[in-house]
Design brief:
92 residues; 39% helix; 4 strands; globular; 4-stranded antiparallel beta sheet; alpha+beta
Length: 92
Amino acid sequence: MAITINIYYTGKNGAARAFAEEMIASATVKAIREEKGNLKYEYFIPIDKPDTILLIDSWENQTALDMHHASPMMEKIEELREKYDLQIYKSG
């Protein structure tokens, strides 16, 4: 069963957008999309929340998601979250 998580990143003065742009520019997003079991990893800007980025993160199953969470990719993501001082809200 596929698992989809909506992650909202919020920061001040464009920090959330800068985070997403660096994730893309550093090829981290590309590497995550190539991980086994990844179905979708895409960023969106909610029209009514310009300081927020929505990540739609979808995986084939819990095993694939667990493997992603155990991968070195998570360290890079955490570093960037801290760099941009983001607040995180998850749903899904």
